[in-house]
Amino acid sequence: MADGSEVALRDLSDYLAEDMAACNRAIVERMDSPVALIPQLAAHLVAAGGKRLRPLLTLASARLCGYRPDATHQRHVALAACVEFIHTATLLHDDVVDESSLRRGMASANAVFGNKASVLVGDFLFARSFQLMTDDGSLKVMNILSSASATIAEGEVLQMSTQNDLSTRIDQYLEVIHGKTAALFAAACRVGAVVADREGAEEHALESYGTNLGMAFQLVDDALDYAADQARLGKTVGDDFREGKITLPVLAAYAAGSEEDRAFWHRVIEESEQKPEDLDHALRLIEQTGAIRITLDRATEYATAAREALSIFPPSRLRQLLQDTASYTINRLR
Fold first, then answer.
1. What's CA 325's distance to the chain center, in Å?
2. Helix (H, G, I), strand (E, B), or coil: what is residue 163?
3. What protein family is recorded (predicted)?
């Protein structure tokens, strides 16, 4: 049975079906290459599915701002494909760094094709994204998307520097997830406003919507690593735990834990000394300390801010769908 977030995204995708079909065609076309391994790996990524939420946000933002494409001008479609390439490139690189074996419930590209191929095809997709930016011809669009690409890399490096460090402050953790996730959500929304020539209050509102939606989305993702079954999560449950990643559920459980509990977290996270039964114990501590509720409450605050950011737009079906997407993002934890 589909949860609320899936229903909301399906409704948004259905509303933008024609634009999304054009975006998917652009993605497939730009993934083509005479170098056989590139389309092979690309086909694996396409088969793995994914919600395509980020390109949907670009398409929806452009339409919300009144963008009217014609047969020869489909800037929102090309830039939505560009956003998806940036996202997919970072996923390829992240799975190599994290040594992940699953992505969206399927074997990850690095598990099938190897680390070298994944890194190089990720580089190819980054290059394709910059070709699409150049084709668009707007320096402002290029600045928004290239800045977001740099911020994503900074977020990943910052996450690496906080890994295995339980002294990480919550504001540092929030800076990590802003960089690795929310920055691209914000950029995806902003360029939709820019192509519609709404580079004022509407642009800022959509940037705020994207930022807050991205923060809520990543908070929920981090909680799911300790609160979902593997089939539902689409990756191995406990990956963040095994990698020693510092996320809000861990920080909350550590802060609320007893001296004995803290000693456990130090051993498994900071010293990376983990036994087979440690994940189950970590899940019990997460539950006992209400760490998932703390994370959900913070995610709800961001989702509410995302909804409110859209209040400057007149009521419409599309505005409601975007607000529902923000509300239902946190339903993945319910």
1. 14
2. coil
3. Belongs to the FPP/GGPP synthase family.
Domain limits at 67? 5-217+315-331
Residue 310 lies in a domain: no
- The rounded average pLDDT for each run of 10 residues, N- to C-terminus, in the chain (334 residues) is 68 95 91 88 72 94 93 88 94 77 66 81 92 96 97 94 95 97 98 95 98 97 82 67 95 97 97 95 96 96 98 97 94 74
Return the bridge partners of 107, or none. Answer: 102
Give the total number of structural domains in the chain. Answer: 1
Find the CATH number of the domain harbouring 155.
Answer: 1.10.600.10
* Domain membership flag for residue 249: no
At residue 132, φ and ψ (nearest 5 deg) are -65, -40
Please give the C-alpha separations between residue 34 and each of 38, 122, 123, in angstroms, as whole numbers.
Answer: 8, 16, 16
Is 165 a member of any domain? yes
Residue 233 in any domain: the answer is: no
Please measure the distance between the N-terminal and C-terminal CA atoms of the chain and give it in whole angstroms. 13
Instruction: Quote the CA–CA distance of 241 and 282 in Å, as a whole number.
Output: 8
CA distance 26 to 38: 16
